[in-house]
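tool_log.txt
---
The assistant was asked to compare two proteins side by side. It first ran the structure predictor on the initial sequence, then on the second. Raw inputs and outputs are pasted verbatim so the downstream comparison step can read them without reformatting.
(1)
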Amino acid sequence: MKIIDLHCDTLYKHIELKTDYSLCCNDGHISEEGLRAGGYMAQCFAIYQPTRITGGDGYSFFIEQCDYFRKFSKECSLIRCAVTGKDIENNYNQGKISAVITVENADFLNNRIERLKEARNRGIRILGLIHNGENCLGFPQSRDKRLDCLPLKDFGKEVIDAINYTDLIADVSHLNYGGFRDVAELSKKPFIATHSGCREVFDHPRNLYDEQIKSIAQSGGVVGVLFYSCFLNGTDSTAAEDIIRHIEHLINVGGEDVAAIGTDFDGMDCEMFISGAGGMQKLAEMLIKKFGYSIAEKICFRNAIRNL
């Protein structure tokens, strides 16, 4: 079974370690060998901008990480950069695994809309609007109802309107409820949640309400179910059944075309039923058993590549 994963934090993990930590071989969740063994078609690698980096420093950090991604992705002969779904298909047909660059926390835009064009020119495909702190676009999810209902800032609304006329994809994972409503209202094309769960399955602010799942599905977008146990079940361990439970709810609420995978590999410290990318065929087999082969294909790669 082919696999497309919409989110990992591997780039930032390598940066934080400040070593020659190699994509080819390492003890993290994602390596060249792991991607091969896991049957991967594509892995999305997020440029994550920490909240401590703001303003002009955020833009410099973004440029630096784009350059780092190019170097990082060239380390391994099996991996090739991709920008579109067509690139991914071409790479796969040539025996290559695609690396797609995304953003998690678009604060590097720093109220300058022209930077959207530069982001796309540098190969960014998916723009995650926010992480866990307020930025120039809006506000993160919150247990505080007042904060959770705050709308996108004016610049955030400008960004969504501009995205409508590009081939960038807006990512609403981490975005608060009020900001989500604005994206749903302003977006004229599919938008996605790269790594989220279902609020009805486990009540956590990082997870989506049923109305949000329906809104993403109606736009033509997808939700990549994450593997982080604190969002799936509130414990320190993730079982395959936890992931399947959230996927099943997604399908029941939004239909079989909304469910995808967004692991959050290298961005979590919980125990898991697999050690990383190399074990993904184990999950694929369970999805086939639960949903049948054609729906499992949609979950594992077809829904994701439709949006890329």
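(2)
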Amino acid sequence: MDLLVNILIFVVSLAALLKASDFFVEAAERIGLSIGISPFIIGVTIVAFGTSLPELATSMAAVFAGSSEIVIGNVIGSNITNILLVLGLTAIVAKKIVMDFDIMDIEMPLLLASAFFLYFVLADNQVTVMESILFLVALVVFLLNSFGQRVDDVEKPKFQIKDLIILLISGVVVYFGAYYTIFAIERISLQLGVNRDFIALSVLALGTSLPEVVVSIAAARKGKPGIAVGNVLGSNIFNTYAVVGIPSLIGDLVIPESTNDFSLPFMMAITIMFAVGCISKKLSRWEGVMLVIFYVYFIFTLSKDMF
């Protein structure tokens, strides 16, 4: 009975976290437009950050709860899920992803840089304060690049106080949703004897990546599958720099020993594979199927060390 209650808490709190994140992003978009921020800048910053907000919230809650080993698994698992499952499903739904912009010029090198940075930082199984600061500096560089690419002349909608209220309330719900998500994970893992690292890399990573899944598939159905690529790029960079950098300044991160054995090298491999696949500026449906097959393999391999 206790297990069912904890599973219910996990499902409800994660659903509240995802829905509150959605309201937070929408309110932030409207406030951004009202003060003159261009839609392009909002897309590559606020939306990318918003879809990574569940990862950041759950990771900070994990540090406060003394379960910091969940953080790295959440980041690596989410990055893998974004590339394999989000892009894979989008390519399958859209039949083909065509990029009408050159991401190999700046965006893809920045994504690869973030992946390699994370790989070398975790090589000694710790994240120091200096490395955390460097992560945040790198995040600022990414934001400055995004803000400097294009400025649009837009008509400013009228600022509404309700948007600010929605922003504040949804922020509070995000916090409590993250707190009870971690609360439930701790108890479920104890009751089932399941490795927390497995839960972080699979169940939690999939759950917190749902915003990317929804945004990308919705874009594909609207005939704009290329948005999925930008969404994955921005979200993965935010995951690496913000979701590792910020929680590691709050408390010491525990790095699971298995991280450098499989999950981190696997993330590196599929990130490079993603970059190679984008050289042609398109991803076919069959490439999407292969991405999903790789994701199934990833989950299957993790399940071997589930207990």
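---
observation on (2): The domain at 2-150+160-303 is CATH 1.20.1420.30 (A middle domain of Talin 1). The beta strands are 96-98, 282-284.
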